Amino acid sequence: MGIAERKEREKIFRREQILEAAYQLFHESGYSAATMDQIAERAELAKGTLYLYFKSKEEVYFALLNRGLEILIDLLEDKLSRRPPPERILTEIANTLSEFNREYVDYIRIFIIMNQEDKQAKLSDEICAQFNSRAATILKLMKNEIQSLIDAGTFIPVNAMQVANLLWAAFNGISQWSLTREQMKISTTHLHDLLGFCFQVIERGLSVDNVNVPPQGQKQLYLHKSENKKGT
Class of the 1-53 domain? Predict the structure, then answer.
């Protein structure tokens, strides 16, 4: 291994140390309580070394958010590579998004915080570009699946990217709504059920089977309550 390659590996390792330390601190005490001093201490690095990688706490957590998007991309790619049948595609996407919310909910919390205008103003162009690239990858994955359903005649002809944006917006909105209700200790419908129901409604609106069908002849949709949490 050459000197340049060794230095690059060390740089990647230290960067991951920083992100993992920031993630742990966020999980333990939240964004506001975490400081650059604490992140450096948890990562076992000098504060000056930390600033060689990130110029601010905002950059640290936006980079951490990028790592969360990478996890979601991997989950979606794995699920969709198994080629679910057409009638299951939107359900499988909804299930994957729900799985991400369940297993990596701290990334959702970070996204809500970093979406504030004052946080984004402190970010470098490079980190913003990385985030936009990953978000675009997620939209493209969903858009390609929607387009395949349009091409197969399962869905009516629509703009597939607009549908992908609608699905992504629904996920983000329902996730934020669910977290807000949780913080306020208000009993609510389980996110998995509500997201699945939302995607069902969108799917029914796009399905060629429901075009020009009288209301009494359309399939009934139901919002089932999860067994592990009460709904209202």
Answer: mainly alpha
